[in-house]
Write a structure and sequence with these properties.
heterodimer, A: alpha/beta, Rossmann fold, five-stranded parallel sheet, 5 helices, 41% helix, B: alpha/beta, seven-stranded parallel sheet, 14 helices, 8 strands, globular
Chain lengths: 134, 344
C-alpha cells in the first residue's frame, strides 16, 4: 500500500577483516533510499540467515574477500531455502574469480558484483530483481 | 472480500491470512512473526487484522525503553542485557530504531552489529526499524511492533531508540520502564536539572564505567536528582526518583545490577503509577493511528483539482494558508476527493 523502501542485509561471512567495501555499499545503498541492515564482520552462515529471517529482508548481500566464497555462499543459500526464504534475493561481492561465478549462480546467487561495480548498478539491479512483497 | 460465491475465494482473505500468521507466530514460528512485524511496520492491510487479533493478547510483557545520546553505548548495553537475560533463561525481544535519511528515505540500521553474537540464541529475536520520518526517537510502528512481541509471548521487550538529543522523550510513553543511558562527562550539574530526557528516566545509567569520570558523573546526577520534590502536585505526574547506576556494557560490569533495578521497577510499574503510564501509551497509540489516517486522507485530497486550485491561490497570495487549509479540512470531513470536484 505505502511504497516502502527495500530492506537489504549486508553481511560479511567468514574470517577476513576487510569491511571497507561492505560499509561503502551500505552507505551507498542508504543514499539510494534502501534500508540497510549491517551485521558486521565474521558472521557464520547461520548468523546471517537468522538475521535475514528476523529482519524479513528482501535482499541478502554477501561481501567476501577471503576466497572461501564457494563454501560459505552456497551454505547461506541452502539455509535460506531451508527456512522457507527462497524468495529472498542473494547477491555476492568482493574478490570472486570469474570462473567461480557459474557455481555461485547454480547455488542460488542472483548476481556477483566485482571490483569496479558502481553503487547505481547494484541499486538498479536490486530494484529490478527483488520480489515485491506485502 | 471473503468467501460467499465469488471466484476469488481461492485467495484467502486478509483476515484469514492474518489469523494464520498469528497462529503460527504464537506457536513459535519465527518466520511468521517476522512477517507480522513487516506488515505492522509497512501498515499493510494485514497490519490492522493482525492488531485486531493480537492486541487483546498483549499487555503482559515489560516494555523497557533504552534511550540516550548517540555513542553512549545503548546497543552494547542492550547486547549485555540480552546476555544477562540469557544466563537466567529469560527470552527477550528487541526493537532497535535507527534514523532514516530525511533526504533519500534510506537508512543504515547498525544496532545489530553489537547484538549479532546472540542473534541465533533460542529465545532472542532482534528487529531493526528505520524511523521513517518519525521524530521523537522511535518509528511510528515501534509501539505496535512491541505489542506483537508481547502478544506472541515475549515477557521482556527492549526498545532501543535512535540516538537522542535532549527532548526525544516519546519512548517514555511507549515503555513501562525507561532507561536513560549517558556517557561519562557529558556535562555538569546544570545538564541534570535541564528539562527533557532525564525527567522521564526511571533508571539512569552512566555507561563506559571504566572511563575516568564515570563515577563522578553518576554522583553528580544522583546528587541533583536527590533534590527533586517528593510530593505530587495536583494535576501533575508524580516526579520520578530514578536509580543512578554505573555500567561497563562492553565487559558486562554492572549489568546484573541494572537488570535487578529493571525488575524492581516492574513491580512499581504494576501499581497505580503503571495505570497512568498505560493510559498514556494508549493515548499515544490511538493518536498516532488517527494522525496517520488523517494524513492519508489529506494525501487523497492533495491530488484533487480543488486542492491544486487552492495552492495556486496561496502561491499567488490571493488566499492565505489558513483559509486554504480550512477549505481542505472541510473537504476531508465531507468524505474525500470525489465530492470536491463538483464544488471546484
Amino acid at each position: 500500500m505505502t511504497d516502502r523502501p527495500l530492506k537489504v542485509l549486508i553481511a560479511k561471512p567468514g574470517l577476513d577483516g576487510h569491511d571497507r567495501g561492505a560499509k561503502v555499499l551500505a552507505r551507498g545503498l542508504r543514499d539510494e533510499g534502501f534500508e540497510v541492515v549491517y551485521t558486521g564482520l565474521r558472521q557464520t552462515p547461520e548468523m546471517i540467515v537468522t538475521a535475514a529471517l528476523q529482519e524479513d529482508v528482501d535482499v541478502v548481500g554477501l561481501s567476501i574477500l577471503s576466497g572461501a566464497h564457494l563454501t560459505l555462499v552456497p551454505r547461506v543459500c541452502a539455509l535460506l531455502r531451508d527456512k522457507g526464504m527462497a524468495d529472498v534475493l542473494v547477491t555476492a561481492g568482493g574478490i570472486i574469480p570469474d570462473e567461480d561465478v557459474p557455481a555461485l549462480k547454480e547455488a542460488g546467487v542472483a548476481a556477483v558484483f566485482g571490483p569496479g561495480t558502481t553503487i547505481a548498478q547494484v541499486a538498479d539491479f536490486l530494484r529490478a530483481n527483488s520480489r515485491p512483497r506485502d | 472480500m471473503t468467501d460467499q460465491n465469488g471466484a476469488e475465494t481461492l485467495e484467502p482473505s486478509v483476515s484469514e491470512r492474518a489469523d494464520a500468521l498469528c497462529d503460527s507466530a504464537i506457536a513459535g514460528d519465527r518466520r511468521a512473526l517476522a512477517r507480522l512485524l513487516t506488515a505492522v511496520e509497512n501498515r499493510t492491510p494485514l497490519a490492522e487484522a493482525t492488531m485486531r487479533r493480537l492486541y487483546p493478547l498483549a499487555g503482559r510483557a515489560q516494555l523497557i525503553g533504552i534511550t540516550g545520546p548517540p555513542g553512549a553505548g545503548k546497543s552494547t548495553l542492550v547486547a549485555a542485557l540480552i546476555a544477562e537475560l540469557g544466563h537466567a533463561g529469560r527470552p527477550v525481544a528487541v526493537v532497535a530504531v535507527d534514523p532514516s535519511s530525511p533526504i533519500t528515505g534510506g537508512a543504515v540500521l547498525g544496532d545489530r552489529v553489537r547484538m549479532q553474537s546472540y542473534a541465533t540464541d533460542d529465545g532472542v529475536f532482534i528487529r531493526s526499524m528505520a524511523s521513517r520520518g518519525h521524530s521523537g526517537g522511535l518509528s511510528s510502528a515501534t509501539t505496535a511492533a512491541a505489542a506483537v512481541f508481547d502478544a506472541v509471548g515475549f515477557d521482556i521487550v527492549l526498545i532501543e531508540t535512535v540516538g537522542t538529543g535532549q527532548s526525544e522523550v516519546e519512548v517514555a510513553a511507549a515503555a513501562d520502564t525507561t532507561v536513560v543511558v549517558e556517557a561519562p562527562d557529558m556535562g555538569d550539574e546544570i545538564q541534570a536539572i535541564k528539562a527533557g530526557l532525564l525527567e522521564v528516566a526511571d533508571i539512569i545509567v552512566v555507561n563506559k564505567g571504566d572511563r575516568p569520570g564515570a563515577h563522578r558523573t553518576a554522583g553528580q546526577l544522583a546528587a541533583m536528582l536527590a533534590d527533586s520534590p517528593r510530593e505530587t502536585r495536583p494535576g501533575r505526574p508524580a516526579p520520578k526518583h530514578p536509580d543512578v547506576l554505573v555500567t561497563t556494557a562492553a565487559t558486562g560490569d554492572g549489568v546484573a545490577e541494572l537488570l535487578a533495578a529493571i525488575d524492581r521497577h516492574r513491580v512499581t510499574a504494576r501499581g497505580t503509577h503503571g495505570r497512568a503510564s498505560r493510559l498514556r501509551r494508549a493515548e499515544a497509540q490511538v493518536w498516532a493511528v488517527l494522525v496517520d489516517r488523517l494524513h492519508d486522507r489529506a494525501r487523497s485530497i492533495e491530488a484533487a483539482p480543488v486542492a491544486a486550485a487552492l495552492l495556486d491561490g496561496v502561491a499567488a497570495h490571493e488566499l492565505d494558508p489558513y483559509a486554504a487549509a480550512d477549505r481542505l479540512l472541510d473537504l476531508m470531513a465531507g468524505g474525500g476527493a470525489d465530492t470536491d470536484q463538483a464544488k471546484a
